Amino acid sequence: MLDSISAPQIKGMFIAGQWRPSQATFDDINPSDGSIYARIPDGGREDTRAAIEAAQAAFPDWSGLMFQERARTLLKIADIWEKRAPDYVAAAQSEGGGWFGKGMFEAGYVAEVFRAAAAHCYDTIGEVLPSEHGKYSTALRVPMGVVGVISPWNMPGILTARGFAFPMAAGNTIVLKPSEDTPYAGGLFFAEVLEEAGVPAGVFNVITCSRERVSDMGEELVEHPLVKGISFTGSTPVGRQIAARAGAHLKKCCVELGGKDSLIVLDDADMERATSAASFGSFMHQGQICMSVEKVLVQESIYPEFLRQFTARAGKLKTGNVADKGNVIGPLINDRQVARVKHQIEDALAKGAKAVLGGNVQGRFVEPTILTNVTPDMDVWRDETFGPVAVVVPFRTDAEAVALNNDTEYGLSAGIITSDEQRAMRISQQLETGMCHVNCSSINDEPHVPFGGSKASGLGRHGGKWSMETFTETRWITFDRGHRPYPPVF
User: Fold this and answer.
1) Which of 40, 95, 227, 294 has its CA 20 to 30 A from that of 124?
2) Contact (CB, 8 A) for 285 and 99
3) 3 pLDDT more than 80
4) Percent share of the chain, pLDDT over 90
5) Going by C-beta distance under 8 Å and a sequence separation of 6 or more, which residues neighbour residue 172?
6) What is the pLDDT of residue 321?
7) Which residues sit opposite 136 in a β-bridge?
8) pLDDT recorded at residue 4
9) Region 477-482: what's the mean pLDDT?
10) What's the rounded Cα separation, in Å, for the pair 287 and 464?
């Protein structure tokens, strides 16, 4: 049964504490049925500059607040977010094509992001250093100023909140540009929540635009001299461009990008745990998660039984319009993504791979697909898929599993299923990934942990104190109490 979900009232972009209507709008599409979910302001460079200037004007007062005042504001945001959780879930379903359960998980998680950020307001902000001259020598963490946040469509609640909550807690002010595919759930909804929480005007600003105007808005946000730092979560090609632009202007940049993550199933694995981790890791939110399991590497002695049980488990997942809560596998976000996934499946099958499950594409819906007989010359082996497609490959030795995992430009996350934790630790230390989870899927996150990847999967870390370090500057300040001598000639 399809739920009836009402569309939001779009009041404009949120700049300097005011809703700013736009003469131009673009259609925000429900990927499940192609209907228009909302009409969103189609902004440009002028709106971006206005938001940046508003954030800069608000910075002295916000950064000058006592730490507990910022903490109280963040806690209030968390409470209001929880109150409005059903509204977020509805948006994540209709605008983002997400399963109801995925929306519920996000809604609960986001409140904890703000609470974790509030807690960090009480952390130490520096340290006292020894001084050879008897100085009172300190290293202090201070806010940077305006931080530009560019957030993605796949987890618009979690990945948007993570991008700005900790920088804001540190005393920075924010200009957020959400994805054009989820401009409400990943942007304007946050503006509604923060406005209700009484966040001072200009501290938090949201600008939106269509895909056709992304370059103009993004370039202005990254290159404007008042913007001191950039938080970006998205694809590796775009992340490379943003990091390069930020680097050219000597701006701090934290980019969390794509992945080609593996789940390594060793011969002593618990089969129930292994197949459930593989199913969740591969097919949660249609595989549209940066940490999704795209390669399942299985020790050859248990490979046949694992494949049988994995295929049976995944075959029970229902695909369809997520307005029906029984449909766990919803649509891919847009036609470009469908074309990408369809190409990888067809390329693999044409080169000798076998689809032991799925492989069918109907509109924006791709059935959970399991491929075997995959070889390194196939695009699905090397390129990020970002769809409900899992490659299952046998290996003989632990060293071979490590080599198969590392055979990619990406290095975000990994999972290892085994009853031998020491063996898992040895393997994990050889994996070229920023994260690794033993007896769990590669999909893991908590608000206070160092989240990020190596190689082409990103630069810097989001989460907890690592976000606070990324989005602050370090200043060395001393008090000369030891009377350091100068040369007599002076």
Assistant:
1) 227
2) yes
3) no
4) 96
5) 59, 62, 63, 143, 144, 145, 146, 147, 228, 229, 471
6) 97
7) 479
8) 60
9) 92
10) 26
131 pLDDT exceeds 70?
A: yes
Spatial separation of the C-alpha atoms in residues 27 and 128, rounded to whole Å: 54
Q: Which residues are catalytic?
A: 256, 290
Over the stretch 36-66, which tens digit does the pLDDT of each residue have?
999 999 999 999 999 999 999 999 999 999 9
Residue 484: its pLDDT value, please? 87
- H-state helical runs in 96-248: 100-120, 158-169, 189-196, 214-223, 236-248
Nearest to 325 by CA among 7, 108, 82, 92: 92
Distance CA 456, CA 257 (A): 7
Backbone angles phi and psi of 90, in degrees to 5: -60, -40
Structure-token pair, residue 459:
């630069």
The CATH number given to 13-257+457-476 is: 3.40.605.10
The pTM of the full predicted model, rounded to 2 decimals, is 0.96
Q: Measured between alpha carbons, how far is 40 from 10 in angstroms, rounded to an integer?
A: 7
Above 80 in pLDDT, residue 6?
Answer: no
Q: Where in the chain is the domain with CATH 3.40.309.10?
A: 261-438
Are 356 and 370 contacting, i.e. CB atoms less than 8 angstroms apart?
yes
C-alpha distances in Å from residue 77, one per residue of 83, 114, 198, 396: 10, 7, 9, 51
**31: pLDDT strictly greater than 90:** yes
The count of other CB atoms within 10 Å of the CB of residue 489 is: 4
Fold of 261-438: Aldehyde Dehydrogenase; Chain A, domain 2 (3.40.309)
CB neighbours of 454 closer than 8 A, spacing ≥ 6? Answer: 411, 412, 432, 433, 434
What are the start and end residues of each CATH 3.40.605.10 domain in the chain? Answer: 13-257+457-476
- What is the distance between the alpha carbons of residues 375 and 305, in angstroms, rounded to a whole number? 21
What residues have CB less than 8 Å from 490, skipping those under 6 apart?
Answer: none
Does position 1 have pLDDT exceeding 70, yes or no?
Answer: no
> Can you say whether the dihedral through the CA atoms of 231, 233, 234, 237 is positive or negative?
positive
